[in-house]
Model the fold of this input.
Amino acid sequence: MRIQHNIMALNSQRQLGINNTNISKSLEKLSSGYRINRAGDDAAGLAISEKMRAQIKGLETATDNANDAISLIQTAEGGLQEVHSMLNRMTELATKSANGTYDDDVDRQAIQDEFDALNDEIDRIADSTNFNGIKLLDGTLNNASTATVTVGTGANTFRVSVGKDAAGKKITIGTDDSKAGNTINASVDSAGELKIVLGTKDNASTYSAKQIEDAVKNAVQKAVDDGTLTNKDLANSLLSFKAEGQTISYVADDTSQAGTAEPTSAALAGAAALKLQIGDTNDGYNQLNLTINDMKAASLGVRAISVDKLDDATGAMKTIKDAINTVSSQRGRLGALQNRLEHTINNLGVTTENITAAESRIRDVDMAKEMMTFTKNSVLQQSAQAMLAQANQQPQSVLQLLQ
Done:
């Protein structure tokens, strides 16, 4: 028998230490509710579950983003609903004024006054409707490429816009007294650069923004048909060309305007759409661009309408109905986008639930199973303590041999 080293006591002590460590881990798991509290518990499981946690946070935030987007859309749609109401009232006023029973100077002037007031209110709603300071209906979110172009003299300035894919393209416009007056020569090259030449030869010439707009669209369509312009997205953006501004007039033999004016160029600058983050990654399919057209009276075509004359009122009826259709189309697009976002939210909710369940299976502790482990380790701990006490008593038996 040896007394220098009590191997039985050392073994019991080692086992007691192991049991104490196991009980400590069980208590930690039971008190925290997690199976993995540190990388040492399950390194691979920790790495996977942390990625899942990040994904869950992203999905939850994307859900909040989509809900905010729906609130924004509802705000914009609320403003457009009132614009619709005013356009319907304009239709009523124009129809009244188109009736021959009204007097121009009194009755139709009163109708015109109300018509002008409605135009002002449409502009006020377009300028003031906002969500968290973001203007919604003033054209800020039209996602178009715009430029301001001067023709001849500084007074002849108008604004043009095209689709977003034409951003950075150049538009050049000028006059040429070698070309017949009241003629517009528009062309587009394979790169999408626009060139417009207004004829000013011999006679007085007047060009409206609408005439220039039609000429450009025809030129773009021709370039598409003959294969000059092959980029489909660029072509569609150019086909949405829109001109706004005053009528451009050139008087024959007026040297201040007639003659060949040096062409002026302007680069089309892209306006920003509202980018919505509706997913947990920066992939394109998790981002959505929200666009809302300019809903001001001028953009709707009703700002310049006159109803104080019978003939003007008759022509105004169609213009107002076109404006109603424009607003209806915009509201329809917003409604479709809102429905899409609602489906997005549902999908995000289901995905969040499933990823959370997967993360729970990896990270969370099974309380019943861990209680079984804790009970086992607790019994082993007590047994090890008892055996350590017994092992410590064993060397005392040597005293029997010394008597």
